[in-house]
Write a structure and sequence with these properties.
Layout (H helix, E strand, L loop, with lengths): L15 H13 L1 H12 L12 H6 L1 E7 L4 E8 L4 E6 L10 H9 L2 E7 L13 H15 L4 E5 L1 H11 L6 E5 L5 H12 L4 H14 L8 H6 L5 E6 L7 H10 L3 E6 L11 H12 L1
Parallel strand pairs: 3-4, 3-5, 5-6, 6-7, 7-8
Antiparallel strand pairs: 1-2, 2-4
Helix pairs in contact: 1-2, 2-8, 5-6, 7-8
Length: 287
């Protein structure tokens, strides 16, 4: 689909000092290292807005809104003047302008986009967050800025869109790109990268369940897919180093009304700016 690049297989790495610290804490106490891991797992990295996103940032109408259900604030971006609205949901450590290339093409065909910096992301306040905060933010934005025709989510944003639909978010079509799927797979991968014993992943999920209620596995995207009849386009790269392609394939398998697009050599983020991917999204929405 695109030419190979030298960095398409790069993935986010946990700094060595954090791994060493985790192992030392694990030696002292399983409980302490679970707390340590949970803190890291829920703390996104705030990146500086890259040049390619500056135009969307400058041309958007921005407003900080309250999300009462979680007592948090999120920065919302309204972009374009089209009659129909599309909600864009970024992934972990992303920003409300991250899907700018998709947003630009949507505006050209008559749509307007609404996006947001999830709690503790971008311009939104806070230091830590979790997917339930993403979902709550979507539901509140739907109340204040909806209704939406379409929702497009990347990575954790894809899982968020699927779970929001399960909770009653009404849209006509959905697009999820590089989405995670099974929550246990995500925590298992994180703990593995931390160099910790697999049992810590189980303890991590149990800690979150005590704090937020419910079962973490209930937030797995394939379970939400089972309950959705909304036409959904699943896009995933075969070489995604951060979210294995099996996640997208499994979500698609569970959809009643799903379509799957697999790409090559685009990785986890370049996929958001690929011409053929964006063309597929536009055609899926229009048809």
């Amino acid at each position: 689909m695109t030419k190979n690049t030298s960095n398409h297989t790069k993935t986010l790495k946990i700094p060595k000092i954090i791994i060493l610290s985790g192992k030392f804490i694990a030696f002292l106490s399983t409980k302490w290292v679970t707390v340590y891991a949970s803190k890291l797992f829920t703390t996104p990295i705030k990146h500086k807005t890259p040049k390619r996103e500056i135009e969307m940032d400058q041309k958007s109408i921005q407003k900080m809104i309250d999300v009462p259900s979680i007592n948090r604030k999120v920065n919302v971006y309204e972009y374009g003047n089209g009659g129909k609205k599309v909600l864009l949901v970024h992934g972990w450590s992303g920003r409300g302008t991250q899907l700018c290339k998709i947003a630009d093409e949507l505006i050209k065909v008559g749509y307007a986009t609404v996006s947001f910096d999830a709690p503790a992301h971008g311009k939104s306040p806070g230091n830590s967050t979790i997917m339930v905060d993403f979902i709550a933010s979507v539901m509140e934005i739907d109340k204040q800025f909806g209704p939406f025709e379409i929702a497009i989510g990347h990575s954790l944003g894809g899982m968020t869109v699927m779970n929001a639909i399960k909770e009653g978010f009404q849209i006509k079509k959905a697009v999820i790109i590089g989405s995670g799927d099974i929550v246990k797979d995500i925590t298992d991968d994180f703990i593995k990268k931390m160099g910790l014993k697999p049992e810590i992943s189980k303890l991590l999920c149990e800690r979150f369940e005590r704090k937020y209620g419910g079962r973490m596995d209930d937030y797995s995207a394939y379970k939400a897919a089972d309950m959705s009849s909304i036409p959904t386009l699943v896009i995933h790269d075969e070489n995604d180093p951060e979210v294995p392609v099996k996640a997208g394939i499994n979500i698609h398998k569970h959809l009643i009304n799903g379509e799957l697009m697999l790409t090559k050599r685009l990785g986890h983020r370049k996929i958001l700016a690929d011409h053929q991917v964006i063309e597929k999204i536009i055609n899926f929405i229009k048809n």
